[in-house]
Amino acid sequence: MEIFYLKKQEILNHIDKKSLESFWDGRDFLCEDRYFEHVLGLFLTKFVAKHIYGVKNLNIELRGKKPYFMTGGINFSISHSNDIVLVAFNNAEIGADVEFMCQRNYRGIMKRYGENNENPSRLEFYKFWTLHEAEIKLHKEVRSLFSTLLEDDYVVSCVSSNILVINFCIKQIIIENKGVKNLNLLEEFEHPKNIKLITTG
């Protein structure tokens, strides 16, 4: 299992936003921010699949409500929250969720879902919540799970119907040259010059 993420605002500050249309799948959104999250998720998934896993056919289809590469191979799950857009890859089926840890009624929400923790901490709640959301995305029985902190204020959880490889890494896509503006994301996708992967965890 490997997790890749980007910071939405950092990427948007350096690219020509029109170039995002090359990755748009035609879905409609009520607000621009949701559009950016969705399309950056597709870009990130296809970028990693192409340059890290060597996937040739990057077309994605929905089976039920779960996305897959049409020709199979590596499995993935996309999630986003606040400023993080994330995709997790695994050889077996995977569901992933990332959440920004804002203040909520932790006890009340957990109680609604049958958890009777009288005084859950922020971290306990978000581990519970991200695992719950990841399970929904998996659409199958959970046989392995994993949670970790990301960027101090986010929790990431992944679940699988088989084995999650535990010797994994977390990598961030960054714009290496902070002075560059109006990058064409499609050109960077084809021939990365300004995009770099760094290991963060």
Provide a descriptive summary of the structure in words.
The structure is a single chain. The chain is globular. Strands 4-5-1-9-10 form a 5-stranded mixed beta sheet. Strands 6-8-7 form a 3-stranded antiparallel beta sheet, covered by helices on one side. Strands 2-3 form a two-stranded antiparallel ribbon. It has 201 residues and is of the alpha+beta class. The protein has helices at residues 8-12, 32-51, 106-112, 122-138, 185-190; strands at 2-7, 60-63, 66-69, 75-81, 84-90, 94-100, 144-150, 154-160, 169-175, 195-199. The chain has 5 helices and 10 strands, in the order E-H-H-E-E-E-E-E-H-H-E-E-E-H-E. The longest helix is centred in the N-terminal third of the chain and has 20 residues, at 32-51.
Strand arrangement within the widest β-sheet reads: 4-5-1-9-10
Q: List the uncertain runs.
A: none
Question: What is the 3D form?
Answer: globular
Q: Using only CA atoms, what is the Rg?
A: 17 Å
- Beta-strand portion reads 25-35%
Structural class designation? alpha+beta
SSE order in H/E notation? EHHEEEEEHHEEEHE
- Number of strand segments: 10
Specify the biggest β-sheet. Answer: 5 strands, mixed
Any descriptors?
single chain; 201 residues; three-stranded antiparallel β-sheet; 10 strands
Outline:
The longest helix is centred in the first third of the chain and has 20 residues, at 32-51. 27% of the residues lie in helices and 30% in strands.
